């Protein structure tokens, strides 16, 4: 938990029982406490003032891209260069790893070309709604079709942060078709055969997008 690390605090409302989420940054730390800036309500975007003894569960993403959580509480309001809250620094055995899906899934639009392996329909181009190292969801154009369990050849274009375009290929299978608003449909597709370098390229792309999102949250 380095200085500058984003924390998400989950606080249970004593009246409604609802879990409210807040975000904050670690401003300073010592052997006993983490000093955080005043939390911002994730929904309202408003700064919230926690009284002493407020208990919560804090989560953060480590350098290994794994999510961790720990219990803590507000011990004091401390004036550093900015007003901060001193919260209890947890013992190592109190920090728990949260089990996540194998691959980070990112909601983003990337270009894709879809080819039926059995030539059941004409090839078409589309964009994704989300992507991960294990699969992708794409919008099915109104004049095109896609069936569950269908085998596809898929080409994907990934715009990386360094300005390069990475082109990846995978043999895939359609898992399910989902109806969105109006006539829009998406196809959830899993990668069945994909080169390791292509899968690593997708994972790197997802991490870059996730990092961008965290940086925006910290602004």
From TrEMBL:
Entry annotated with the keyword Ligase: no
Domain spans labelled PilZ: 99-208
Occurrences of domain Type III secretion system flagellar brake protein YcgR PilZN (ranges): 2-90
UniProt xrefs under InterPro entries: PilZ_domain, T3SS_YcgR_PilZN
Keywords attached to this entry: Cell projection, Cilium, Flagellum
Coiled coil regions in record: none
UniProt-recorded name of the protein: Flagellar brake protein
